[in-house]
Amino acid sequence: VFIAQSRASGSHRDLEDEELTRIFVMIPKTYTEEDLREKFKMYGDIEYCSIIKNKTTGESKGLGYVRYLKPSQAALAIEECDRSFRAILAEPKNKSSESFEHDYYSNNMRQDLRGSTLPFCMQPEFCSFEKIETRIQEPVSKRLSVVSRLPFIQEQLFALFDLVPGLEYCDVQRDPHTNSGYAVIQYSTAASAIYAKYKLNGFEYPPGNRLTVIFLEDGNDSSE
Question: Could you give the strand order of the β-sheet that contains 88-89, starting from the edge strand earlier in sequence?
Fold first, then answer.
């Protein structure tokens, strides 16, 4: 589909090949470029591999590029590599890499939650929280507090937590002194709140900004 769309657009052949031979993958942060090449060389001739690193610390962001000599080799890699790599065709180089990374993280997070939340909610074990934590030490409630070092955008945060069924409201607040983000989230059931906390506490959104999610007292009996 990507190849057909590109050819139909009438783009120059060299640009077309550039856009169809580079793939973008999610990798363990311990991977080196050699590790990346070793994992993907079975699908074709690799021109280069590169790992995206934090400009300040030099640490891997857990993302990388693999450039093949032929579009067919890149397509084969996307189709046949392990799903954990989340391989997709990379955006053209003229698009901001940070913008592309943000879109990539957001889209994959949405796929993760949609893929796991809905079936999970329909399974009997969700009621006993066996997949989350059987020994919850803190009082639970239907209300959550979300804290971030960056300010929130109301629509984005609502869309993020709305992926867990039962969201009743999302109230974003901002501290004018620190410019940090703070929000109160409430679900219709404690089960949804527990699952949202389990999935999103510590989640980086946007990449590099870790969310802290805790329970807030909602006035109900937490033992229930």
Answer: 46-53, 60-68, 22-26, 88-89
